[in-house]
Amino acid sequence: MLATDGIARLLAFACFLGLMGTVTPATKLGTNCLAKSPDLNECVKNIAQGIFNNMHLGFKEVGVPVMDPLQVVKMDIINGQGSVVLNLELFNTSHTGLSKVTVDKVVADPEKYSLDMYITVPNYNIEGLYKAKGKIIVLPIQGEGNSYFRFFGIKGVWKIKGEPKVKNGKTHMKITKFDVEIVPKDLKMRLDNLFNGNKELGEQMNNFLNQNWEEVYTQLKPIIEDSFSQIMQSFGNRALDKIPYNQIFHDIS
């Protein structure tokens, strides 16, 4: 599983605070959207784009600090089956690239509690310390030290489904399903100090990882996406529990 409060807060904020228009006109992002407007999708898309464009500045108006770069204390990626059997821990990592996201398309249906968003991330970089043990395809892997992961040309899809929930006489949205798809065009990575510092074996493994990145990522992709889905659904529901639905879309009673 993949676990990171930092990324969870970021994605929950971007998706639920920005896309649902909970920012006020005083912020740099504009006003709320109307659910029954013919321009709804474009309105939501513009707010989402504004969220990403300002990740490097943060949102003091709502108490959110700078998110690009984002500092993440710990991440765990664990896969126990298939051709990639891996226990990978990442520590004190810096994540950069979300302020360059392009929101390609939004399909929103507030009356059905549904939202789909399609994004492109040109570059997403993770740098920090790692500890790894396992097997990559046919080769054992073990080590700890500095690392980086550089994703290029990511195509992402977020598909959110929900239902009404009444709290204190007011209707809120409860997320029942949050599907995530993350597809990079390329991935470059490096793990220093593999095999107790054996440079020859370390270089061979790094070359192998980069040459076979698609198979490695394909094996880990379901775990990464499912973990992001669970995290985002949890944090999203926490946010939505505080906001009546008619404060998000003013023309829905």
UniProtKB/TrEMBL annotation:
Which Gene Ontology BP annotations are present? Answer: circadian rhythm
User: Which keywords label this protein?
Assistant: Biological rhythms, Signal
Pfam families named among the record's database cross-references: JHBP
List the GO cellular component terms: extracellular space
Q: Which residue ranges does UniProt annotate as crossing the membrane? A: none
Keyword GTP-binding: yes or no? Answer: no
Question: In its keyword annotation, does this UniProt entry include Transmembrane?
Answer: no
Renumbered to this chain, the signal peptide range is 1-25
Tell me the protein family, please: Belongs to the TO family.
Instruction: Report what the protein is called.
Output: Uncharacterized protein
